[in-house]
UniProtKB/TrEMBL annotation:
One of its GO terms (molecular function) is DNA-binding transcription factor activity. SUPFAM superfamilies: Winged helix' DNA-binding domain. It holds the Pfam family HTH_5. Keywords: DNA-binding, Transcription, Transcription regulation. InterPro entries: ArsR-like_HTH, HTH_ArsR_DNA-bd_dom, HTH_MetalResp_TranReg, WH-like_DNA-bd_sf, WH_DNA-bd_sf. The keyword DNA-binding applies. SMART domains: HTH_ARSR (SM00418). This is HTH arsR-type domain-containing protein. The keyword 4Fe-4S does not apply. Residues 21-113 form the HTH arsR-type domain. Transmembrane segments: none annotated. Gene3D superfamilies: Winged helix-like DNA-binding domain superfamily/Winged helix DNA-binding domain. It comes from marine metagenome.
Length: 113
């Protein structure tokens, strides 16, 4: 039993060292991963891997109706996964940074090969 307690204490110390002052970052990571867990949002991410797209193009590529698509895009943007810009009457979306693209590529490699 003593060995079990010491292994638990070692694990607890390792986790505290790894995540010590990172509670906010852990929460942000959890929210980001949670938002990516929806099949429709994964389709959106796949469509955006090649670069910036208009909402109209995303609707065509994903088959998601515009009203639902807008909700997904808004959620992905609020979690920092996507960024957007407006040009005249068009909204353009793209993946926020290369690390998110790499994460998505890893997800695709694991589950879609």
């Amino acid at each position: 039993m003593n060995t079990f307690v010491s292994k638990n204490e070692i694990l607890k110390c390792e986790l505290e060292q790894l995540f010590g002052e990172q509670e906010e970052n852990i929460e942000t990571a959890g929210q980001c991963l949670k938002v990516l867990s929806h099949p429709g949002r994964l389709r959106i991410m796949c469509a955006l891997r090649g670069g910036e797209q208009t909402v109209q193009n995303l609707e065509y590529y994903t088959g998601i109706r515009q009203t639902t698509l807008s909700q997904h895009l808004s959620l992905l943007k609020s979690r920092g996964v996507l960024v957007s810009r407006r040009e005249t009457t068009y909204s353009f979306y793209r993946i926020a940074n290369d690390q998110i693209t790499e994460l998505f590529d890893l997800i695709k490699e694991i589950f879609c090969t």
